[in-house]
Design brief:
Layout: H1 12-16, H2 21-31, E1 36-37, H3 50-61, H4 79-93, H5 99-102, E2 105-108, H6 110-122, E3 128-131, H7 137-145, E4 149-152, H8 163-176, E5 182-188, H9 201-214, E6 219-223, E7 251-256, E8 268-272, H10 275-288, H11 294-305, H12 308-333, E9 351-355, H13 367-374, E10 377-378, E11 380-381, E12 395-399, H14 405-421
Parallel strand pairs: 1-10, 3-4, 3-5, 5-6, 6-7
Antiparallel strand pairs: 2-8, 7-8, 9-12, 11-12
Bound molecules: pyridoxal-5'-phosphate.
Length: 423
């Protein structure tokens, strides 16, 4: 059967859609199996929790009575899993857990779906979401696809939010009426993708205070996808949903079980402090799928109750910490620092964020990109991680998630060899 040749007429969003950057990177990698990819933010398949998932499945399927976990589940998510997720967040933030907290949680098909739902409920074409520079490029692509402007939050030399400039900018927008287009501030505040940096509690508090003073309906989306993936110690900042400075501000905290546990189960969650926003997110989710996979959630619920999440985290924190050191050391030993490349050693997450010397253009299709492909090593070009009006062409994101140590050393050798050719 051939594809239809008849044309259809696309919506405004449909017309704007483009293949995602990561899809292009993957295609290039698939076309040449010898390529070693430091690009994709996948987890390490060798550490995925086969035993825990297997035991949970056996346990679930051998329970007497009707196989409720093989039936559709609630749109918002399995109540016990929502309770576990809320309890965990309150424990991490060091605040008391109450039954009400469970009602603020919804389970999604990865935190990516939560991001999509939350944004679609808030934003029309032409609206604005303030984002960090750099930020999570898949979200930036999503905003672009929906015709929403990703405007850079003012950031100072040290990479901290420049609250004074931000307040000035927002006040000017208030005076001009443009503020009505500002719908949210999006933060990737723990071991960020791509920078590996975290936002201190003091920075978040100042942001909350600023938004209180501004008194406009601007939401805060805190994406904590990597919060659990610290190497040695937890990052000591509570989330926005537990800080008094955000009382009365609509906050959505996103967590995921894909990075810290079984990636392919693809379950994430939102914790929303605004009942109305949550209600609408859930209505929209009803249109999407009327509930994420009940069986998958049941597996995670079983693993949570059995302590499997923490067991797995104990393992992968060690593994990723070692892998980060392997990649960092290999890049140093091959001489990347000597030719002017710079990066900071992250304290968690899955990425190294490198700045190239001499304004080297690292964009996709640049000479450097092509040379890396020729030398069979891949990276994520840093320019993808900046909002609409920012232009930064000389960064590179390298992931130490997927490749094993031997492959990573080889990938680092190829990368540095290429970099030397451009020095
Ligand atoms: C910052 C950030 N947020 C959200 C996600 C989405 O993750 P998932 O849908 O697997 O929960 C990712 C995935 O890489 C990410 O890096």
């Amino acid at each position: 059967m051939c594809f239809s040749t008849r044309k259809v007429s696309y919506s405004r969003v449909g017309q704007k859609l483009k293949p995602s950057a990561i899809a292009s990177v993957m295609t290039t990698a698939l076309e040449n199996p010898n390529i070693l990819s430091l690009a994709a933010g996948f987890t390490d398949s060798h550490t995925l929790p086969v035993l825990d998932v297997g035991n949970a499945v056996k346990d679930l399927l051998s329970r007497p009575g009707l196989p409720e976990c093989l039936q559709y589940g609630p749109n918002q998510g399995r109540p016990e899993l929502c309770r576990q997720v809320a309890k965990r967040l309150m424990e991490q933030d060091g605040v008391p857990f109450s039954k009400e907290d469970s009602k603020k949680v919804f389970m999604t098909n990865g935190s990516q779906q939560a991001l999509f739902l939350a944004t679609q409920v808030l934003c029309d074409m032409g609206d604005i979401v303030f984002v960090e520079s750099p930020s999570y490029f898949v979200y930036l692509e999503m905003l672009k696809g929906q015709g929403v402007e990703a405007r850079p939050l003012p950031i100072d030399e040290a990479g901290m939010i420049d609250h004074q400039s931000f307040e000035r900018e927002l006040i000017a927008m208030k005076q001009s009426g443009e503020i009505n287009r500002v719908k949210a501030v999006y933060l990737v505040s723990y071991f960020s993708n791509p920078s590996g940096e975290s936002r201190s509690e003091a920075e978040k508090v100042k942001l909350g205070e600023l938004l209180q003073r501004l008194d406009e309906p601007i939401a805060v989306i805190e994406d904590a996808a990597y919060r659990d993936l610290y190497f040695e110690t937890e990052y000591p900042a509570r989330s926005v949903v537990s800080l008094d400075a955000f009382n009365g501000i609509s906050c959505l905290y996103l967590a995921t079980l894909t990075k810290p546990f079984a990636t392919g189960l693809k379950i994430g969650s939102g914790f929303c402090t605004d009942q109305e926003w949550l209600k609408r997110i859930l209505w929209l989710k009803g249109h999407h799928d009327f509930g994420s996979s009940n069986f998958t959630q049941a597996i995670l619920e079983t693993v949570f109750l059995d302590g499997g999440i923490d067991r797995q985290l104990g393992l992968i924190r060690r593994v990723y910490s070692e892998k980060m050191k392997v990649l960092h050391t290999a890049l140093c030993e091959e001489g990347l620092v000597e030719i002017g490349w710079k990066w900071r050693i992250p304290l968690g997450g899955l990425y190294l964020w490198l700045k190239a010397p001499n304004s080297l253009d690292t964009r996709m299709k640049s000479a450097f990109w092509k040379a890396c492909c020729c030398n069979e090593v891949m990276y994520i070009p840093g320019d993808l991680c900046y909002g609409n009006t920012m232009q930064c062409f000389d960064y590179v994101r390298l992931s130490f998630g997927v490749l094993n140590k031997r492959e990573m050393v080889e990938a680092a050798t190829r990368f540095v060899k290429t970099a030397k050719d451009f020095f």
